[in-house]
Structure formats: C-alpha cells, structure tokens
Design goal:
By secondary structure, the protein is an alpha/beta fold. It folds into 2 domains: 187 residues, 3-Deoxy-D-manno-octulosonic-acid transferase, N-terminal domain (Rossmann fold, 3-Layer(aba) Sandwich), CATH 3.40.50; 176 residues, Rossmann fold (3-Layer(aba) Sandwich), CATH 3.40.50. Helix content is 45%, strand content 16%.
Length: 415
C-alpha cells in the first residue's frame, strides 16, 4: 500500500511542479529561490566530496532558523562523524555556508523518488535527521528502504498542521510511521505524533533545543550610533498589518524613542517605508548605515540577533496577526522583556513559559503596546526585573541539546 501512495504522491508533485515554478517566477518573495543552485534540487552532487571513512549523519533543516538551532549539535558531532547538511531555502543554505560546520552542504533535492534515491545513493548516510516538521514522503520512504535510521528532532506540529495531517492520516501514517525516533519539543507535540504514528515510533520529549543556543554578541550600541540613554524598541519578524499597529503605538507613546523594525519578508520594506512616511515619520534603511530616522528599517538578513542585544524591549512578530508567531527565546536570551500577540501557536509552550515566569507580556493592540512601552520607559527597575525573568526562563529550560545528542549517539553506536 505504501508503494501505491508513494506513486500517487510523486505523480501529484510532478504535475504540480510547472505550476509551482510559475508561482515562484512571479513572486517577489520566492523568485530568487527558483534557479538558485538548481542542480542541487536534482541531487547532482559531486560524489568525491562525500568520500569519508567516518559514519555519515545527514541533517536537514528547512531554513535559517533551524540551521541556527542545530549549531551546537553540529559542533558536537563534526569531529566524530561526516556531516551532511541540507536546507530547503536559499537563506538557510547561505547562512550554513558561512558557518562552515558541515562537511558537505546542499539544497534538499526535490521530493521525487528517483531524485531522492539518487541523493541517498551518493550520500549513503547512516543516520537521517529531520529538524522540526520537515516531513517528506519520498525522503522517508527512501531512507527506510535503505535501512537508514530516521530521526526527527526538536519536532513540533502546530494545531493547523496537525488538523491537515489528521485529514490525510490514511496517507501520512504510512510514512511518518517509518521514523525510528521522534524527539518532541513538548508533551502536546508528543501526543500529536503518537496519534499520527499510532504509537509505533519511539517518541521522547526534550524541550526546545533553541534554548541551548550560545547567545552572545560583541555588538555595542555605538555600533548602531545609539546613545546609552536612548530607549530602543525592536519589532522583529513582523508580518501583515503589524507594522501599522507599531507605528500607531509609536505615535501614542510620543515619538521619543528609537524603533528597529525588521519585517519577516524583506520584499515588504518599501511598503513599510511608505506606511511610515505617510504618518510624517522619518525612516532610515539599515543597509545604508544611517540610523538617524525615527524608524530604522532592517532591510538585510542576519542582523536581528545583534539588534535584540542592544534593545531595551523586543516585540516578536507574526503574533498580532494569525501567523503562528516567531521565536521569543532569541530576545529573552539577551535579557530583554518580550512582547507578543495572542497568536503564538508555533511557540505555544515557550510563550506560556515566558508569560508564566513574568518575562513576557501579551499585547492586544496599539493602545496596549503603547502602554507597555510607556511603563518600561518610566520604570528602569521594572525593565531590569522583567528582562532578568526572561533570561532565567531561558536558562531553566536548557538541556534539550544534551538529551538529543545522547539519542543520536545511541543510534549511531548501534550501527
């Protein structure tokens, strides 16, 4: 039955590819992804670069965020094993290339059986690790057919995704059930995977490995031409109508502080610039090294961590609109009070932890956001205490990486 489902799945993908290519071609957001290192999408890898006498661990990450999350795992494995790292996105691959923590780096091949078979024939992994919810039917089937151990680490399934998987459970249980070990971020995620796998897979709960990242920054305020007396608010990974809420809150507070505004998708920068300009506010572009505006619009990748580190208060985007929210651990790890909206489904347990420990607050609208900012501006003791609570929450949740590495090595030692 699995073979029949696999054939149907592959036929659907093959017929969908031209439509997907057209959509990418006409999309500002994805156009650059279409032809970027396209040969790697067809598993056209150089076999000579994969010749190693060590056991091979193939780790797949969707994008930049997942690559950041596994940095410490890469550090711990790279001396003893040959590491292959694949990513789904251009930004993830470019960031991984800068890290130089993998022995071989490529884009994930198209999830078509003949292509995934070619990839596994060349790479010959001993262990195939998927990060978070990167579930691909052909990849799972190919790995299992070759007796390659399969793990999913830091795994999560949002309610929306779980509802979709449930609707297609008759299909996905054939492939998710091929996974040997799943390490979930929370009990809720674990229960969802147990349902989908019919409890045929070994499932553990580790917490979120993103708590274990080494959050350090040698950036100082002077690098961004900020004064120590400036009150700095950063809104990271904003989406949809959130920028309008932030602009309104800025006006309601009285315009007497600095805002770094980093949209999730950089193609929206000029749309946001117009929004700011229409309110008679000045803005500067981060890429132009100009920090004189009321708003500094972050139009480059890879700077948000440094900006969080010099901020006073941080807002995590994708949460006032129904987009699932972004990672609240990142600003909290720098000891910053964190604000976010009610839509934190992608980081539900993390958001609940920070709120419970008084290191973060939920905001509802521009009035609520403005009042929270005013409160922090007026009370330096409150600002310090909430930031310390956020940082303590991060430290209290560490340990997922150690647990995950133990399970990885158990599987490899048994090979």
């Amino acid at each position: 039955m699995s073979k029949i489902y696999l054939v149907l799945y592959n036929v659907l993908i093959i017929f969908a590819l031209p439509l997907i290519a057209i959509l990418f071609l006409f999309s500002k957001k994805y156009r650059k992804e279409l032809f970027y290192k396209i040969s790697e999408r067809f598993a056209c890898y150089d076999p000579s670069r994969l010749d190693s006498k060590k056991k091979t661990v193939w780790i797949h990450c969707a994008s930049l965020g997942e690559v950041c999350a596994v940095e410490s795992i890469l550090d711990s494995l790279r001396n003893d094993y040959f590491i292959v790292l694949t990513t789904l996105t251009k930004s993830g691959r470019e960031y991984a290339a800068k890290l130089k923590k993998a022995d071989f780096l490529a884009l994930l091949p198209l999830d078509i059986y003949l292509i995934t078979k070619r990839a596994f024939d060349i790479i010959e992994p001993d262990l195939f690790i998927l990060v978070e919810t990167e579930l691909w039917a052909s990849m799972l089937y190919t790995a299992a057919k070759r007796n390659v151990a399969i793990m999913v680490i830091n795994s999560r399934i949002s309610k929306k995704s779980f509802d979709r998987y449930k609707c297609l459970r008759f299909f996905w249980k054939k492939f998710i059930g091929l996974i040997n070990v799943i390490i979930a971020r929370s009990e809720e995620d674990s229960d969802r995977f147990k349902y989908l796998t019919e409890e045929k897979t070994a499932i553990f709960v580790s917490g979120n490995i993103k708590y274990d990242r080494n959050f350090t920054s040698d950036v100082r305020r002077k690098n961004f031409f900020l004064k120590e007396t400036d009150f700095v608010f950063t809104a990271g990974s904003t989406r949809g109508s959130e920028e309008a809420v932030i602009v309104d809150a800025y006006i309601k507070v009285g315009r007497n502080f600095k805002i770094f505004l980093a949209p999730r998708h950089l193609v929206r920068i000029y749309e946001i610039a117009k929004l700011v300009g229409d309110k008679s506010l000045k803005y500067s572009l981060f890429s132009e090294n100009d920090f004189t505006g009321d708003f500094i619009l972050v139009d480059v990748f890879g700077k948000l961590q440094n900006i969080y580190s010099v901020s006073d208060v941080c807002y995590v985007g994708g949460s006032l609109v129904d987009k699932g929210g972004q990672n609240p651990i990142e600003p909290a790890a720098y000891g910053k009070p964190v604000l976010f909206g009610k839509y934190m489904n992608n980081f539900k347990s993390e958001a609940e932890n920070f709120v419970k420990n008084n290191g973060a607050f939920i905001v509802k609208d521009s009035d609520d956001l403005a009042n929270k900012i005013k409160g922090f501006m007026a009370n330096s003791f409150l600002l310090k205490r909430i930031g310390e609570n956020a940082l303590k929450t991060v430290y209290d949740q560490k340990g997922a990486v150690s647990f995950t590495l133990t399970k990885i090595k158990e599987i490899l030692d048994a090979k």
